[in-house]
Amino acid sequence: MSLRQQALAAQKSKATFVGSIAVVLWAFLALFTTEVGTIPPFQLISLCFTVAAVFSFVSIIVRGKSVLRVLSQPLGAWLLGVGGLFGYHFFYFVALANAPAVEASLIAYLWPLLIVLFSALLPTETLHWYHVAGAVLGLGGATLLVTKGHGLAFEPEYGFGYGAAIVCALIWSAYSVLNRRYGAVPVEAVCGFCSGAAALGFATHWGAENWVSPDALQWFAIIGLGLGPVGAAFFAWDYGTKHGNIQILGAVSYGAPLFSTVLLIVFGKAEATPTVIVGGLMIVAGALVASREMVLRSRR
What we know:
This is EamA family transporter. By secondary structure, the protein is mainly alpha-helical. 76% of the residues lie in helices and 0% in strands. It has one domain (18-299). It is globular.
């Protein structure tokens, strides 16, 4: 391997690692959300995206960069960014409102597997059997964590909710893969996408929900969400999907429900059952299998 190839491989590994940080941050979503249970979903997501946008704009200004230059991006990048961020959350909440949470969440969580499969359409990527095998293992582990080992009951009367969950999975997987097309768009542009998602969230909230004034603890949780799972996570994911190994990121994404469950156990909001342990081992195994090529290269 030439020095240039080694440098490119190292850069790709770094971007994959940065993208994986998003998975860790998303794990805090459930923990923070338990503290804001009375806040309507679209009000919550709009507030969180507002926090993310404000802090990212401040960061851009403090670093001496031009906000206007950051926001001057192609229309396609704006449609993809805002549509991906808001569209995923919109259809996720629609799914939860029209179908049982377990089944809807599991359908929505097909997106990591879809990312791996859709990556075959990218001209610079090669899909191998171990990428698919790792993603399938991760899906199996996530299924155990979400269902807690109990069976699934997909009933026809919840078809609309299931359909919304499928759209949710398709939107996020398509956004993640198509994001590679806009590799030249700086990560800082996500601040604008968060602003657009916040505006659409507020519009949906005012049309479908009643405003609930958050208390001090809820504001703390909202700020935490806006800085982490609904903030920095999207910046890390943007960089990772543009420059990293998209197949590994897809398989590693099943670590989010695992880390989330671990956090809930640590804070006494869940129990460490044999099902959780088996599901966790499957997710870890899936990530290792999907990362086979990277692991072997590092050994060499």
